[in-house]
């Protein structure tokens, strides 16, 4: 059995849960409260020196880290259903959409960054909300353009079955809700989120349905 | 002929140049001065709505964006020499090392983020340098642990030939130099950088050797 070390609210955890569910893979759910620094214990750091969730522990004890690296691993070891298209240009498109969220939005808006803004720059709640919104909009505007204008976009980010980019988009949209980001300027993104949110694999990955949700 | 739209100092550009050179692929070099907002023109935005470098334009006009998505594309279309190991766990390791830099360090330290810190939080040069250093050390400490303790680490990040993670590490080290980050606490990372810096593919990708370097 796989063991998923994660946190209900972490968006990298959410995207990995969606991928595991899409692949039909069962896992033991282990929760770590980030605010209580539960990933900073010697035991957790021995699995993941960066002290970050998610970590996927394989049956042989191998601890995989970095959500996108884990999903690529799942894609290679459990190819059905595919989370990347069959053609190289399609895969490049899906990965680029994914990395727009994973490399341009999420890293700027996670907990430890917001904490640093408070401690070092005296950012108040308003300043942090403005920061969060700024980086979402900086990427969601071009993301909307790419999704709205491409014939490759279907019900989901790339055609009629969910792909890696949908896992990232779904998780980011849940993150956006926490900071009350207004995404009405992005009708294609909102439409795709709504479609994903009807699917069991995504509903069961959503933060509020996890065992450690408050 | 491939066309590389990029900027000498951009570390995502540097990692892509290294990958192109390792694959032995020729490209037309097109430079964009980020400080002069040369990626914000309608022509460039039509290739890349996010207005970010690098973009790799294929012979058929397809514009690929996001450096890691482009390198994965190159790996699929030009598999030799490989930039990912042959086994799935090895690939997961190399991708995780790469994403530690690409998702945890680089996004926090690029130009537009530093500009935002100045405009919204009145960060001075000292504050920006502290910010830059903080995020490098937050990831380089666990990265050093992972590299120093794994039997998979060789002359380079994974064995005796450079991989995707080496492209990311090499580019980040050049970025670190600009902000005078002291990396002496990371002897494995420094050793790998020094080894990479003797290779033509990397030397020719380094910021100071590009046509647009000041």
Structure description:
2 copies of one chain form a homodimer. Chain A is α+β, with helices and mostly antiparallel strands and 214 residues long. The first copy, chain A, is built from 9 helices and 4 strands. A 4-stranded mixed β-sheet of chain A has the order 2-1-3-4, with helices on one face. In chain A, helix 4 packs parallel to helix 7. The longest helix of chain A has 25 residues. Chain A is globular, with a radius of gyration of 17 Å. The mean pLDDT of chain A is 97. The interface between A and B is large, with 51 and 51 residues.
Brief descriptors of the model:
homodimer; 214 residues; alpha+beta; Glutaredoxin; Glutathione S-transferase Yfyf (Class Pi), Chain A, domain 2; 2 domains; four-stranded mixed sheet; 9 helices; 4 strands; globular
Summed up:
2 copies of one chain form a homodimer. With 214 residues, chain A is α+β, with helices and mostly antiparallel strands. Chain A is 52% helix and 7% strand.
Q: Give the C-level CATH assignment of the largest domain in chain A.
A: Mainly Alpha
Task: Kindly give the count of domains of chain A.
Answer: 2
Report the C-alpha radius of gyration of chain A, rounded: 17 Å
Report the oligomer.
homodimer
Largest inter-chain interface? A-B, 51 and 51 residues
CATH architecture of the largest domain in chain A: Up-down Bundle
Mean pLDDT of chain A: 97
Give the CA-CA distance, first to last residue of chain A. 26 Å
**Strand coverage percent of chain A:** 5-15%
Query: In the CATH scheme, what's the topology name of the largest domain in chain A?
Result: Glutathione S-transferase Yfyf (Class Pi), Chain A, domain 2
Q: How does the overall form of chain A come out from the CA principal axes?
A: globular
Order of helices and strands of chain A: EHEHEEHHHHHHH
* Neighbour order of strands in the largest sheet of chain A: 2-1-3-4
Structural class of chain A: alpha+beta
Count of DSSP strands of chain A: 4
Main pleated sheet of chain A = 4 strands, mixed
Low-pLDDT parts of chain A are none
């Amino acid at each position: 059995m796989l063991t998923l070390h994660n946190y209900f609210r972490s968006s990298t955890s959410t995207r990995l849960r969606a991928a595991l569910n899409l692949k039909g893979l069962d896992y033991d759910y282990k929760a770590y409260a980030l605010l209580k620094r539960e990933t900073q214990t010697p035991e957790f750091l021995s699995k993941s020196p960066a002290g970050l969730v998610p970590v996927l522990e394989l049956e042989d004890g191998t601890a995989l880290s970095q959500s996108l690296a884990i999903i690529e691993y799942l894609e290679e070891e459990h190819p059905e259903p595919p989370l990347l298209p069959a053609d190289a240009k399609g895969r490049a498109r899906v990965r680029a959409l994914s990395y727009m969220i994973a490399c341009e939005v999420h890293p700027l808006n996670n907990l430890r960054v917001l904490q640093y803004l408070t401690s070092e720059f005296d950012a108040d709640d308003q300043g942090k909300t403005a920061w969060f919104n700024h980086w979402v909009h900086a990427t969601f505007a071009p993301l909307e353009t790419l999704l709205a204008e491409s014939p490759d976009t279907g019900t989901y980010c790339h055609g009629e079955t969910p792909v890696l980019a949908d896992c990232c988009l779904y998780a980011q949209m849940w993150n956006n809700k926490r900071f009350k980001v207004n995404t009405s300027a992005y009708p294609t993104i909102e439409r795709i989120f709504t479609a994903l949110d009807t699917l069991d694999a995504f509903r069961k990955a959503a933060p509020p349905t996890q065992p450690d949700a408050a």
